[in-house]
Amino acid sequence: MQQTIDQRLKIYSRVETSLNQMFKELSFCKDKCMPQERSFMGNSHKNGPIGCCHDNYYHLNIPSYKKINQETQDDIRARFRELQEENLITKLMKPNSSVKDYLRYSYSSSTKCSCHSSEGCMIEKFKSPTCVSYTCVPLERELEQYNINYDQLIFLDFIGDIFAGEVRSKQAQNLIQRINQATQRIKDSKTNPNQEIQEQIVIDN
Ligand code: SF4
Ligand code: SF4
């Protein structure tokens, strides 16, 4: 039976959550890149701590679009936007949220994503695949330190398959398990830096 759009987006959200946790545990972007005037991405902006969030990448650019007809793409985009806005609003409603920052960036900048604030990204859930999956070379190298191989392009294809309704919950679970395993490895290595290098974890699909 064909998956509904909400079922596909639920799978996307589960994969996104586990990948976010891995990057959060790694804390590379936040500690090593965001505080710098120039990001590791190598772009020429000098607008302060924005990492690679220098354009409105929150727009949903559906990967593997050829597998999805235009009508379904439009439906996915509309639903995705709704869910994204719901989560953005939830974050803005939190007591310590820097609403002012969000508004300032929204209206005054042409070189930052309008969802970027001094707290980082204002979208907690349903970031676009571009935002969820992007890794610059230094970030990939950092993952390699933990013997984690992350292939962004294959991963994006997999997300395309999710949007196309071709990924079953069990298959997604398999990927999530590997991502969670990688998160745990990073955590363990931080508490015990001398532990032996373990077998490679491959995160792609
Ligand atoms: S992905 Fe790379 S360029 Fe982007 S914030 Fe992280 S370290 Fe910086
Ligand atoms: S949506 Fe968030 S992660 Fe994506 S570019 Fe904007 S601020 Fe960065």
Explain what this protein looks like in three dimensions.
With 205 residues, the chain is mainly alpha-helical. The chain has helices spanning 5-26, 28-33, 70-93, 99-108, 129-133, 137-144, 152-163, 169-191, and strands spanning 116-117, 120-121, 148-150, 201-203. Helix 1 (5-26) packs parallel to helix 8 (169-191). Bound molecules: iron/sulfur cluster (SF4) (2 copies).
Number of helices: 8
Taking the alpha carbons of the first and last residues, their distance comes to 22 Å
Q: How many domains make up the coordinates?
A: 1
The biggest beta sheet reads: 2 strands, antiparallel
List the SSEs and their pairings.
Elements: H1 5-26, H2 28-33, H3 70-93, H4 99-108, E1 116-117, E2 120-121, H5 129-133, H6 137-144, E3 148-150, H7 152-163, H8 169-191, E4 201-203
Parallel strand pairs: 3-4
Antiparallel strand pairs: 1-2
Helix pairs in contact: 1-8
Residues 28-29, 33, 39-41, 51-52, 134-136, 138-139 line the site of one iron/sulfur cluster.
